[in-house]
Design brief:
This protein is mostly helical and about 120 residues long. The chain is built from 5 helices and 3 strands. It starts with 6 loop residues before the first helix and ends in an 11-residue tail after the last helix.
């Protein structure tokens, strides 16, 4: 988003990288190390400021919070990140499937599923 975009638009944008690593960690109740770890696991990729500092969006913080909940329940961080990624992929596939069914009718003429 360009720097000349009005502040109110940037604040409403879920993808605007508004939070520093320290602030993001504080909001999540975790450490900067946790944020670095989920970045290394490729769950989220923070944007970088002109000075090279990590910056996080609200959308990224929601994803990080989901991973944190799994880690807090004892799931290893790499597994938690993979679970969140797979959950998102499944949700997207279900959304696409629902759109297809809506566009082509519920029966759609497809072959019966085999078990």
């Amino acid at each position: 988003m360009p720097a000349d975009t009005p502040l109110s638009d940037r604040l409403d944008d879920d993808d605007y990288p508004a939070y520093t690593m320290g602030r993001a960690a504080e909001m999540l109740g975790t450490t900067p190390g946790f944020l670095r770890a989920i970045g290394e696991a490729r769950l989220i990729t923070p944007l970088r400021s002109e000075g090279g500092h990590r910056r996080y969006s609200r959308y990224q913080l929601r994803i990080a919070a989901r991973a944190r909940e799994l880690v807090d329940r004892g799931t290893p961080i790499e597994a938690a990140c993979r679970i969140v990624i797979l959950e998102d992929q499944l949700e997207e596939a279900q959304r696409i499937n629902a759109e297809y069914r809506a566009a082509h009718g519920a029966s759609g003429g497809s072959a019966p599923a085999s078990n």
